[in-house]
Structures are given as structure tokens and as C-alpha cells.
């Protein structure tokens, strides 16, 4: 199924590029000094797709170092939503199957989750870097009893160089996640904007630590 996995990863990347080019229909739901978050109904599942956009005060390489989906990467250190991240299978140099586990959240209303995704990394000619992912099944990752299995639909992050400003990066991210389990929609709808705001805030702190 390596070809299948690669194909799914490619489709996720193409969707990210479509979202990036398609400014229509987004409704703002949260804005802080660090990030603006907007949403629109997902075409992939019965939930929403969320878009986070910010200028992070660091070079694209430093931002990428913090978010890239690799084994023993920095993300588990700074992202409070990511408890554990493991690469289950390397499909190619740029595509891998990964399992992410999350801690309980939202005053424990949301219990620990696990996600199994195919993840693609890509660099563009202008220096933009993309990490894109979508859910898959994998024989080495049967559901585990202590976790609710959630599903990421095509999602990802673009680290985009800001012309003439080598120490600034536009970080554009798209999240569309079915958390699984039986959560009230109101919990889901308030969790994501808060979670994305936290992601950008913690990333900004992490990048400063990396540069220090």
C-alpha cells in the first residue's frame, strides 16, 4: 500500500494548496495579537475546517524546525496538544505514517486521543515549506483501549518566507479534525479556536527559545 499512502498524502497536499489559494467563505472566529483564526464548513466531514494565520518573528527554517513532523522532533516539547509523536513507517523520503497522541483537554471533558496519519513534507521553489496530513489505517496501529481514535481530514501548515524580512515567517495552517467519541458540538466548536490560538502562542515562545 506504499503507493496508496503516497497518493493520499499527495491529495492532502493538493487540498492544502487549494485552501491556501481560496480566500472565500472564511468566517473569523478568534483574533489575538498573534493569530487570526477563521472557519468554514468542511467539505470532508460533518464539521468545520479552521484556518490560522500569523506572522511568526523567526526565520522559516526556525519555524519549520519547531513544527516539522519527524521522530524526536521539537513539537512534543512545546505543543501542549501533542503528548507523543511517533513515525510508524517511512514510506519515502518525504512521506511517512505517524501516530500522534494527545493529552486530555478542555478541563478533561476531552479525553486522550490518538490519530494515525500519512504525512507529507514538501519544499517549494520560493522557500515555502509544507507539512500536510490526512488520516489512514495502518496494520501496526490498531485502536488502543485508553484512547479515543480521532481522525484528521486533510490538514497542514505552510511556512512562507516574508519577502525582504528573513526573520519573519507567515505561518498558515489548516485544521479539520473529527475528535471522535461523543462530544457535544458546543465543546468541539469552542475547543478548536482556543487550541489553534494556543498552538500559535506556544510556537512563538518555542521559536524564541530556539533562537536564544
Question: Could you explain how this protein is built, in words?
Answer:
This protein is globular. A hairpin with a 4-residue loop joins strand 1 (27-31) and strand 2 (36-41). It has one domain (1-211): START domain (Alpha-D-Glucose-1,6-Bisphosphate, Chain A, domain 4), CATH 3.30.530. Helix 2 (60-67) packs across helix 4 (185-211). The chain has helices spanning 2-21, 60-67, 75-78, 185-211; strands at 27-31, 36-41, 48-56, 84-90, 95-102, 113-123, 129-135, 148-149, 151-152, 155-162, 165-175, 177-178. It is an alpha+beta fold. The chain is built from four helices and twelve strands; from the N terminus they run H-E-E-E-H-H-E-E-E-E-E-E-E-E-E-H.
Q: Given this structure, which CATH class is correct?
A: Alpha Beta
Any idea what the CATH architecture is?
2-Layer Sandwich
Query: SSE string, helix = H, strand = E?
Result: HEEEHHEEEEEEEEEH
Strand percentage lies at 35-45%
Give the tally of structural domains.
1
Gap from first CA to last CA: 43 Å
CATH level 3 topology: Alpha-D-Glucose-1,6-Bisphosphate, Chain A, domain 4
Residue runs with pLDDT of under 50 for 5 or more positions? none
Main pleated-sheet profile: 10 strands, mixed
Question: What is the share of helical residues?
Answer: 25-40%
Q: List the total number of helices.
A: 4
Number of DSSP strand runs:
12
Q: Measured on Cα atoms, how large is the radius of gyration?
A: 16 Å
Average of per-residue pLDDT values: 95
How would you describe the shape?
A: globular
- Give the helix/strand class: alpha+beta
State the fourth-level CATH superfamily. Answer: START domain
Amino acid at each position: 500500500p506504499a503507493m496508496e499512502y503516497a497518493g493520499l498524502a499527495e491529495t492532502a497536499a493538493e487540498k492544502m494548496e487549494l485552501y491556501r489559494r481560496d480566500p472565500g467563505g472564511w468566517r473569523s472566529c478568534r483574533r489575538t495579537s498573534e493569530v487570526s483564526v477563521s472557519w468554514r464548513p468542511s467539505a470532508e466531514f460533518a464539521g468545520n475546517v479552521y484556518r490560522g494565520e500569523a506572522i511568526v518573528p523567526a526565520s522559516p527554517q526556525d519555524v519549520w524546525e519547531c513544527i516539522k513532523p519527524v521522530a524526536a522532533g521539537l513539537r512534543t516539547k512545546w505543543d501542549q496538544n501533542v503528548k507523543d509523536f511517533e513515525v510508524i513507517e517511512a514510506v519515502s523520503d518525504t512521506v511517512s505514517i505517524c501516530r500522534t497522541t494527545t493529552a486530555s483537554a478542555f478541563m478533561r471533558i476531552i479525553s486522550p486521543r490518538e490519530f494515525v496519519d500519512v504525512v507529507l513534507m514538501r519544499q517549494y521553489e520560493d522557500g515555502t515549506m509544507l507539512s500536510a496530513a490526512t488520516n489512514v489505517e495502518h496494520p501496526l496501529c490498531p485502536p488502543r483501549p485508553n484512547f479515543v481514535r480521532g481522525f484528521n481530514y486533510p490538514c497542514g501548515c505552510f511556512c512562507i518566507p516574508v519577502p525582504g524580512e528573513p526573520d519573519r515567517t507567515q505561518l498558515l495552517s489548516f485544521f479539520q479534525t473529527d475528535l471522535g467519541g461523543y462530544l457535544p458540538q458546543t465543546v468541539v466548536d469552542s475547543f478548536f479556536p482556543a487550541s489553534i490560538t494556543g498552538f500559535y502562542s506556544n510556537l512563538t515562545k518555542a521559536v524564541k527559545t530556539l533562537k536564544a
